[in-house]
Amino acid sequence: MPTLPQRSAAPVDDDGLSRRRRTIETGALVARSFGLISTGVAAAGIGAGAAAVASADMRFVCWAGVVTMGVSNVLAHLGRRRPASRWYPWLSAGQSVIETATITAIVALASRETAETTWPLLAPAIAVAAVRHRIVGALMVFAATTLGFALLAPGSHDLFYLIVVGFMIAVITGTQSSALDRHLRALDETRHALQHQATHDGLTGLPNRAHLAAYADRHTGRPFGVLLLDLNGFKQVNDEHGHAAGDLLLHEIGARLTVALGGDGLAGRLGGDEFLVLLPDADSAVAARVMVRIHDAIRRPVDIGAGRAVTVGVSAGVALRPRDCPADLDTLTAEADAGMYRDKRGRSRAA
């Protein structure tokens, strides 16, 4: 009698890219909040930074920067909450655009109105764009900050240094970020492949025992139906046509079970020629309808190659659990197993 495990491997509910995005947005919130407060304090004429914000134009730009940094923080908060959302790239790009325009305007105006060297403040915008958007983003922000600085602070002697240093920062941080992104994607693909291998049968691609157990656990306390299926004639196929033909047969039966179920439940393979079908919220009428579809699907001839076709039958046992019944999957599987053997003996006597 087949016995399913009580515990299964926990599904992957996160990945490296999502964690990286959360980290990026957390860092952005912290760093930008510091910049927002510092800019606001200087614009208000408080502290050492007040000397650099002497003109009305500079104060206006700084207060506008406070507003735009606040908007960027809202976008960062939304991105941090939903790092896997399809909107995340837009939220991230929006922050990059706002940050680039804000810091370029502040730095260029400060360079034009004071003797302070402010162009190094553009470097973080390039580095952050590299983290968010890899080499392409870094180069785009480098180009935007350089062009903006040249237009807003024409004739500045700092433009040459900005071009040289900014380009170096864009290339170094952009290539490193791109390499890290490729590495994380490769790791995630490997993790997902391993997770699939751990929860699915390698021959049929159907869920395995661990996956079936986890699926049943999610429906505890609800009406639940279990169908245990055993193929009739499978041994003869193996004996007469070889194990390769038997594997083709099992693979095709697995595909047919999935199609026959549609969205009504989950079919999995326990091993050998035994399959398990789980039917959430099923009663006897639902189980009977599903069994008719399964019988019709399995009894059709199966092409096993070289112009050969075989036909197999199926013996089945059914177990049903009403709402709030404490019976677990092992109990239901044992009951269905007993029914399947009664069905198989009945078919043998009839033959």
From TrEMBL:
InterPro entries, alphabetized: DGC-Regulatory_Protein, GGDEF_dom, Nucleotide_cyclase, Rev_trsase/Diguanyl_cyclase
TM ranges: 29-52, 58-78, 135-153, 159-175
Name of the protein described by the UniProt record: Diguanylate cyclase (GGDEF) domain-containing protein
Superkingdom, natural source: Bacteria
CDD domains: GGDEF
Record's keyword terms, sorted: Membrane, Transmembrane, Transmembrane helix
Keyword Cell inner membrane (UniProt): no
Pfam family for this entry, one: GGDEF
NCBIfam families: GGDEF (TIGR00254)
Residue stretches making up the GGDEF domain: 222-351
